[in-house]
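Residues determine shape. We examine one folded chain.
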Amino acid sequence: MERQLRSVESERLAIEREYLYWLTKTPSLGAVKIRKMWERFQSFECIYNIEEKLLRSGGRSYTIIITVTDINRVAQEKLFVNAFLDLVRCQ
């Protein structure tokens, strides 16, 4: 049982690392903004999967941290990643 739990935790960390990597490759998002987003949403996967509308309405204090330009770039990067994954699946 403990081994299964460790395996699940290890898999979860690996998934979070993938989403963190994606965020670090998004232009204009540096370590501080990524950390602030993680503090707000508690998961890099959640940040990736969050709807743009919710990201825009993250609250006044949150919008000071991440600008409209940042939100647009996150949305563009998600489109790029999804298009790339679709291309890979087709091959």
The chain is about 80% helix and 0% strand. The two ends are 39 Å apart (CA to CA). The longest helix spans residues 2-24.
